[in-house]
Amino acid sequence: MIKENQQLLNRINTLSDALIIYLMIPVSFWIRFTLQQGVINVTLRDYLVLGFFYTLVQIALFYAVGLYRPYRHTRLSRELARLLFACVLGWAGLLSFLSLRHMDDYSRQMLVIFFLLSFFFLSLKRILLRRTLSQLRARGFNLKHVLLVGSGSLAKSYLDKIESERNMGYHPLGYIAEKEGGFPIPYLGGYDCLEAVLEEKKPDEVVSAVDPAEFSHTPEIVAACEKTGCKLSAIPIYAEYLSSSQQIDDLDGIPLLNMRRLPLDNLGNAFLKRGADILLSVLILIVFSPVMLICAVGVKLSSPGPVIFAQKRIGRNKEPFMMYKFRSMRVNTRQDTAWSSNEDDRKTAFGSFIRKYSLDEFPQFWNVLKGDMSLVGPRPEIPYFVDQFKEEVPRYMLKHLVRPGITGWAQVNDLRGDTSIPERIKYDIYYIEHWSPGFDLKILFLTIFGGKFKNAEKIEFKGQSEKNK
Length: 469
Fold this sequence. Notes:
Elements: H1 7-35, H2 44-64, H3 76-100, H4 108-138, E1 144-149, H5 153-164, E2 170-176, H6 194-201, E3 205-208, H7 218-228, E4 232-234, E5 247-251, E6 254-258, H8 267-287, H9 289-302, E7 308-314, E8 320-326, H10 349-356, H11 364-370, E9 374-376, H12 383-392, E10 405-407, H13 421-433, H14 437-449, H15 454-464
Helix pairs in contact: 1-2, 1-4, 2-3, 3-4, 6-7, 8-11, 9-10
């Protein structure tokens, strides 16, 4: 059907999206004013005229958020999230336009129906399209034919991935290397054969996955691809150290690869997250102040000692800060060198109760207001364990690139307390590299309503975490 680019598919995709959006206008009109017998203040013709311009704007938004890029590498959940974002943005823009122009006769209820229907059918179309393409690829259609260059660990990882993810539609024609690597695809010769192989096989893409020992062949790989007009993609020899998103800066003609570009490095994103932290923390401290008063009295009556337990933790940029909690244990000398457990004999009866329901965490909202912490982020650790883990756990210190959180992606996946630190760091790094406002809301939702949703989250993350191994 298509081998290299998806121009035809993208045109069909764009046209079908426009038709779905535009057709939902008369359908919504019929539901609102025929089925529900509403009063018609604006004719269908006026809605169709408005809908025509709205459809153009909405398609432009779809292009802006990347919905028409090739999506062999994009998960369905991420594509639907982009779709929802673009639809909400377009719909909010439409409502704003009507309000500013004082066009109050247009039915807001009909526009709600229109938004729900259009998003539903746009999503359904994408789900069905992906399933159709997946079935076609399983039968040998819509494949992207690739030639692999290299025979080391990078080439093996790439080959294992496309073999295990057949639905992505990659078909390896064979591989070029100095010597055979024992791969289950044809060995097509050494680097001196590359140009002839490209002329004969005419692959859609050449993937260079050479190890450091073979890196000296890169100039001839590039030259052969340019001479034959083949598209070349390369897996960097330092791929295992890269984050999932990078940025290439230009230093007066010298490209600089930023190996760990984080969403929260963007000032707009950082301002948005900090603003949400302050707003929600103030709201929670006000609303739950009676609960905190009860907790304070209970702690005071449960055992001698202070109501608030303050402990030094390591925060953003490795700066220490004092983290606050309601004291749940008797005063002891092991608080800075030992973890607590469910059967810890240091806990009081009231302390066990407030820890069971996480009520002891309420004072940390004051840490959030101070700027020491965020609502969502990697959990902070005491200096004793930071010094230990940074020597034992690869990339452990990357968690300190952002503010620590009251809850986090690792915690909602049951990685808390005495659990695997390397596994927990995988989740923390994934959160740092993939932060978005929606991701924070998802974690907060799972923190409050976790339970039955947690298994689904683990399944989704299973494949995503492989890159961080």
